[in-house]
Amino acid sequence: MSKFIRNLAIFVAGLPLVATKAADVPSLQTPRFDDLDKAVSLRPLNLDMDNLFASHRSHSSHSSHRSHSSHSSHYSGSGPSSYVPSSPAIRSSMLTTTSPAASASNLAAPNDTTDAATPPLSAGEKLRLQVIRVQIKLNSLSLYNGQVDGIFNAETKHALKLFQTVKGLPETGLMNTPTLNALGISAVR
Amino acid sequence: MRQIKAEFGKAMENGIYRVVGLENLPEQWQEDLRFLILAPDTASCIQVEAWRQRGLLNIAPVNAIGLEEGDVVACDCTRGKVNVLFRENDTHHSLFLTNRCNSYCLMCSQPPTRHDDGWLIDQAVDIVRHARTAPSVVGISGGEPLLAAAGLKRVLAAIEHYWPGTHVEVLTNGRLLHDPLVSAVLFDRIPANVRWLVPLYGHADFLHDFVVQSPGAFDETLDGLLALQSMRQPIQLRIVLIEPVIEVLDELCRFIGQNLPFVHCVALMACEPTGFALANRDLCDLDLIDAAPMLERASRILDRYLVPHVFMNAPLCALPTRLWSRATRSISDWKNIYADECASCLVKDRCCGLFAWHEKNWKPTKLKPIEEIIA
After folding, report:
1. A139 with B31: Cβ contact below 8 A
2. Which of A67, B14, B232, B267 has the fewest CB atoms within 10 Å, counting from its CB?
3. Which residues of chain A neighbour B104 with C-beta distances below 8 Å?
4. Using CA atoms, how far apart are residues B157 and B195, in angstroms rounded to an integer?
C-alpha cells in the first residue's frame, strides 16, 4: 500500500512538468478571432464552373441538336459488342462438347450484341437535357406553356425572364448559375 | 419481391420505371429512362398530364401506398400493380437473371422452370440503369446464372458502368465453369469486384450429387471452383444445413480445409422453408438446436484450417452462444420477419429473424426469446 502511495506521489509531482509542456504547444482547438469574418457559406447547388450553358442564347447555333432523335432508344446498338465472341468457330465447337445444349445455346444468346453502356452525351445533347429540365420546372411553376422539347426558344427565354423577375434576379433570360440554383436544377455536366 | 397495388393514369407501357416525386422530376429527368411520378391527388395528375402533352412521353403518374422515391419498379398495368425490384434503403439488393437451373436441389427455395426467360437479362440491365444510387453490394441469382453466361456478362458490364465500386455477388453452382469454353467467354475480361457464392453439400461425389439431384454435379462444381481460383476470383462456399448435409458436416469441413483452403469464406445456412424443401420435408425440417454439437464441431474444424465462416438464416436462439459472433443478418428485407415471441428478446436487433413463410411451414427451432445475456 505504501508503495502505491509513493508511486502516486511521484506521479503527481511529475504532473506540472507535463502540464507546462502541453501549454507550450499552441492548441488547435481554440478559435482565432481573425477567422470569424471568413464564415463558410452553404455551397450552392451549382458553382459557376459547373454551368456549361450559362450564356446560351439561341438554339440554332448548335447543329448537333438535330441528331438527338437517334438517341431515344437505349438499345440502339450504339457500339460494337464487347461481350461474347459469337464467331462460328466457337459456336460449332460448343455444340460438339458434352455439356448440355443449354449452355451452348445461351452463350450465343440473341441479345448479346447490345451494349450495356450508353456513350457519354455530346455537348449538344447536354444542352438539350438541361433545357428540357428547365422547361419541366418552368411548366410546373405555370410560367411556361410551350412544348418540353429541349429547344431554347423565345417562349422559354420569356419564361426564364418571368422567373427571374419573381426571384429578383437580373432579367437576362439566360440559364445562368444563379437562375439554375433558384430553379433547383443542377447543371448538366 | 414486394408487390404493391397501384392506380395508373391512362393506358401506359408495362416495363421498368424509376419512382420519383413530382417536385424532383426536373432534376432527374433523362431521355433514356422511364419515370413513375408519385401523384396522390388530382392536381399532381393534371401536372403529369400537362408534361406528357408537351412532349415528355417517358413519364406516367401512379397512385400507390408503399412506393418510395427512388424505387425501381416493374409496372403491370393490366393487373394494376407494381413490383418493387430495387429499393434504395434495403440492406440486400439482388438481380434475378433466370429461373432455369441445371441442378434440382432437394431444398431448392426457387424451383426451376424450363422456358426461355432471356427477358430477365434485359430487365436486370434496366434495373441497373434506372437506379438513382448505387448499392454497396448487389447479389445476382437465379436459377443458375451461368446458363445465361452471355447475359451474365452483359449484366456485369452494366453494373461496372453504372455502379462502379459496387461489389457483386454471383450465386452459382459453378458447374458450367468446368466447360473451358464457358469460362473462357466469361473471363475473357476478368470482372472486377465480383465474388462467387458456390454451394457445396458433400465431400464425395455421391453425397453432393444426391443433394443437388444431378449426377456429375460434384466433379463439375469442383472444376468450377478450381477455375475460379485460377482466375483469382474470391469464393464463398455455401452449405445448406439439411439432414443429409449435417450428417457429413465434419467430413465436408475437413475436405474444404484440406482441398479448398483458398476459399474466402464458408457460409453455413439454415434451410429456407419453401419450394422443394416442403416436398422433402423429412430431409429438410430439423431443429437447429439438435444440430448444435455438429455446428460447433464444424466451426472448430474450419477454425483449425483457418477458414473464415459465418452462419446465415439461423436465429440466435437456434445457435449455441459460442457461435453468435459468427451469425449474420442474412435474410432479404422483403422476406424477413420476427415472430411474436421475439418481442421480449434482448438480442432481436442482432438476430437474422425468420423467413416470412415460417408460419405456414416450420421454424428453424422452437423460438426462445433471449432474456438474459451471460457475458
Report:
1. no
2. B232
3. none
4. 15
